[in-house]
Amino acid sequence: MATDSPFSPSFTPGRKWGSGLQVLLVGVLVLAVVVMVNYLSANYFLRFHLSARSRIELSARTLGLLKSVTNQVRVILYYDTDDAEALYSPVWDLLNEYRLANPKIRLETVDYIRNPALAQKTKAKYNLSAQTDKNLVIFDCEGKVKPVDGNALASYVVEQVTNAVVGANGWSFRRRPTAFLGEMAFTSALLDVTSPRPLTAYFLQGHGEHQMDSGDEVTGYLKFASLLEQNRVRAEPLSLLGTNTVPPDCNLLIIAGPRDAIPDAELVKIEQYLNQGGRLLALFNFSAARKNTGLETLLAQWGVDVGRNIVTDPDNTAKGTDIIISRFGQHAVVDSLRGSRLHVSLPRSVGRLTARAEAADAPRVDELAFSGPRARAAGDSTHHAPFPLLVAVEKGAIKDLIAERGATRMIVVGDSLFLGNLQIESAANRDFAGNAINWLLERPHLLAGLGPRPITQYSIVMTQAQMRQAQWLLLGVLPGSALLLGGLVWLRRRN
């Protein structure tokens, strides 16, 4: 009787054929995946940025602008291509992304060191100075020209460097770039040369409002005014004292945190402006929560209820009385902010006035953002609710509209500090400001998503509850899991 030998082959012919068939099937599958990937890459072109130098993709707002460009735009890089500090390589890489997104963008390089003849022609055409105008990016669209200084494309720090050759002290200095600002500058320049005409925003003054030209860290609005300029909106101050009226070229009226009462005569002028298709960005300051600036009464006629309160939110408090907003309504201004957050300070509630909403001629009032469900208004310990904190207002079909104006549009916010110099860079505040500007001015192609940012600007804003959760995870859950796993391994080996 034959017995199996320990040296008998482990694979029968059937098993061999099965293994061969399995290898064949895996090979066919791998080949199919390779073919599919190549087909998709050829027909659905998508580029990923993996290197340190090319890690930035164009923002959604930039891509929206590029989609709207129909005229030829020449972009001339007037550079010494070997100058490392001039950031020529990242500038070229970034502008190449613009060209790939829209073939109407045509890139040219003029090396003023190696091609002096072409440099001379460029200097003559664009009236460049031989001494000062170096390392420029020139945007030219049918004669509309916007130069961008290369020194404005990065922020720098000055470092002290030891050098035994230099001076008795042996010190020299160098500039080190800390952030690349190229997309912000280029998108602004592209908008400048492709827009039909400049727009003007007027900041109301005379009632304790934030100052558009102030560099004060907290209350100044200089960075917001700069954001307006980046969006091709000229910022100007406005006083309505005496016989002054809202200028006819006012595309946007900004009332930023008035602390004193606005006289009735001035409120009448603002109302006339709004009734003629005006655009208003109104922001309220906590210091006037117990006052009546007159603006509250005016906005009530448009269906907006501005609370004489200060909202606190224990579940979404960042520090002190600051609130992190992550609950948004349905509206073009905030649709792109989902997954992001706003950072506000001492906000007042701003919502829809129910009684006015029932009127036949009532404007449309959309509540855009809300506090958490356990929020409360200062002075009211019993009422807990998700308070609305900002609204958008729109009313069309207005009789006798001023030429070049459409329907009346407003955005009303219960906090004015969140667009100040300090907080505008926090969370998604800058993106909200850009969205608000472009919605008010009816530029839908610039509402596609978030706007350009410095490449090194990363920030994490967390509430106190989120900080506690993170601490529990890092200090409790993770070490505890490691100890538990180690204990289980020890017990198993012991047994």
Overview of this protein structure:
It is a single chain. The longest helix is centred in the first third of the chain and has 31 residues, at 13-43. Residues 39-55 and 399-404 have low confidence and may be disordered. It contains 11 helices and 20 strands. The protein has helices at residues 13-43, 60-68, 88-101, 116-126, 182-194, 222-230, 264-275, 295-300, 354-357, 429-440, 464-494, and strands at 73-79, 105-111, 136-141, 144-149, 154-162, 171-180, 199-204, 233-238, 252-256, 279-283, 304-306, 311-312, 322-325, 327-328, 342-345, 350-352, 364-370, 376-377, 388-395, 408-413. Helix content is 31%, strand content 22%. Among the domains are: 60-152, Glutaredoxin, CATH 3.40.30; 197-446, Class I glutamine amidotransferase (GATase) domain (Rossmann fold, 3-Layer(aba) Sandwich). With 495 residues, it is an alpha/beta fold. The strands form 6 sheets. An 8-stranded mixed sheet has the order 8-7-9-10-20-19-17-14, sandwiched between helices. The chain has a 4-stranded mixed sheet with strand order 2-1-3-4, sandwiched between helices. A two-stranded antiparallel ribbon has the order 5-6.
